[in-house]
Amino acid sequence: EKEPLWLNHRELADIELRRRLEELTGKAPASKASLKEMTKELFGYFDSRQNEKLDALFKRGVDLAGKNESGKAAELFDKVLAQRPDFDRRALMAPTYFNLGKKLRKDKKWREASLAFAKAHSVAPKGERAKEALAAHHFSRGKMKGDSGKADIERAKQIDPGAGGSGKSWMLYGGIVWFVAGGLLLILGLHLR
Q1: CA distance 181 to 179
Q2: With 0-12 CB in 10 A as exposed, 13-18 as middle and 19+ as buried, what is 120?
């Protein structure tokens, strides 16, 4: 039977995949490798290279966070999440975003603080400080909006009564007052006895 003088699309793809894999890995794929196997190997190669780069960025971010440079660490974490939103260690980024939010809130940079707290909640929605991060996000957003942000501040207090430094603090002071009052009544009672 006579062979046609042209190649079909599958044969062209096979030739190109084999050429590219040999160029990248330095070894030719098996002669019986299917298009699917070679495609999987090619994507695996690029995925592993990207993983190495993302791991390096993540480690640099963790190092910076350990040096209390949460702003620079958050920038690196943002780059990691931009490349891979489902990064497997994303929950470890939450404390850095949360600390950055606290710094920004202290400086009254409400928009940036709100964003940092939102990121802290989104990377670890079931983390130990997730509820606090969500409340801080709403509180900062409310402060950013000014008078029109009262609903956000109320939402923050519903999520966490201590949001924004108010809420639980009155309980602490109230407890101290009642403790002192109780102590004075005890002393008075012992004195009158």
Answers
A1: 5
A2: buried
Q: Using CA atoms, how far apart are residues 113 and 149, in angstroms rounded to an integer?
A: 15
Q: Is-contact 96 77, C-beta < 8 A?
A: yes
User: Where would I find the H helices in the chain?
Assistant: 9-25, 35-66, 70-83, 94-106, 110-123, 130-145, 150-159, 168-192
- Over the stretch 58-82, which tens digit does the pLDDT of each residue have? 999 999 999 999 999 999 999 999 9
- In a 13 Å sphere around the CA of 143, the CA atoms on its Cβ side amount to 22
One-letter identity of residue 61? G
DSSP 88: T
Q: Is the pTM of this model over 0.90?
A: no
* 3-class secondary structure per residue, 114-144: HHHHHHHHHHCCCCCCHHHHHHHHHHHHHHH
Long-range CB pairs of 72-79 (<8 Å, 24+ gap) are 73/100, 74/100, 74/116, 74/119
- Contact assessment for residue 106 and residue 99, using Cβ atoms and an 8 Å cutoff: no
Alpha carbons 49 and 52: distance in angstroms, whole number = 5
d(CA 180, CA 20): 79
